[in-house]
Amino acid sequence: MVVTPSQAAVVYEALAPAEPVTGREAAEVTEMAEAPEVTETAAEEAGATDDTVTERFLRLRPLLFSVIYHMLGSVADTEDALQEVWLAWAARHRAPAAGPVVNARAYLVRTAVNQALARRTDLRRRRETYVGCWLPEPLFVTEDDASGPVERAEVVSTAVLVVLETLSPLERAVFVLHEVFGFGHPEIADALGRSPAAVRQLAVRARRHVHARRPRHRPEPGRHAEATARFAEAALGGDLQALLRVLAPDVTLWTDGGGKGPAVSARPVHGRERVAALFLAIAGALPVDLPGLRIRLRRTAGDPCALVVTDAGPLAALIVDLAPDGDRITAVYSVTNPDKLAGARELAERGPGGRVDGSTGTNSG
Q1: Per-residue pLDDT tens for 146-171?
Q2: Which helix (H) or strand (E) covers residue 105, if one does?
């Protein structure tokens, strides 16, 4: 091994923010840092040039991207929706009869939320015909993305994103805006065209639903990264005893291949012995001469991730969830759909900073 799992944990902690920031805390920082800059008077609006219109949008783009991504769980759809937000923003400033935008942040967030809600129906139809389990598309980030209050608000884990898929579109919008980004109920009511009382009811239902399925806890980043590295090494190396040590008895495995990548089951697989047996079968089936098979530790918006790559590109993204009171893995999310790994191609070959393993040792015994 080139880097041990414990060393990988140190690498991950260096890449991650020093202290996880809650959605409420990050939103408060964002309010203080951004609100005075994006509140516009009628005179400023009247004198806005194309450059200033673009600058205002770009300043808020990370926040808008984060809001839409948390509502859709798809990077590609988020980019498409964000393009529509930009077109609406630019058109709004070209309209001669349009009045001034009093607060660009509120206006753009409202437009972004409505774009995301409009895309939920299409996404639901596509997922009805999706082959196998559907998992959120991993949002891979680098140390450069971890600076600034908006980026640091992206602390929703894959496990929570999976639970958010079970909410109604409005419940999800309210949960994301209130719990993740700290928007107040009156602001959300304005964005959704609902009364504050209705928004509060949606917030209560959404919070109760999410917390019932995913108790509020976040593993310590270094420990989470170390468990991820140990699991990936054991799974790809075909080490049964190591797998049994790291997996919780009630672990569940979700595999998302989308009919395009390898997936061991179209349904979730429950139980330590069954999950371990499946990964042993995968390790045994991999060609001995698969060129450049290796594991690299990378980071998604909410979790460490073991990226399995070959010389041809990314093969799988493995993300795990830990029990609140220990180091055992309670959930494994395996994404092998190549469409969802497009964002990992460049990261896969970045320098050795996130490298876990020079080779997996697969088929060694």
Answers
A1: 443 334 444 688 999 999 999 999 99
A2: helix 104-128
- pTM greater than 0.85 (yes/no): no
For residues 89 and 111, the answer to whether their CB atoms sit within 8 Å is yes
> In residues, how long is the chain?
365
- Specify the amino acid at residue 347: L
Strands 355-357 and 304-310: unpaired
Could you report the per-residue pLDDT of 278-327, keeping only the tens digit for each?
999 888 877 777 788 889 999 887 899 999 998 888 999 999 999 987 78
Looking at residue 190, its amino acid is D
Largest CA distance in the chain: 74
Q: Coil, strand or helix: which one is 314?
A: strand
- C-alpha 324: how far from chain center: 20
Sign of the CA dihedral running 60, 62, 63, 69: positive
C-alpha 167 chain-centroid distance: 17
Beta-bridge partners for 255: 334
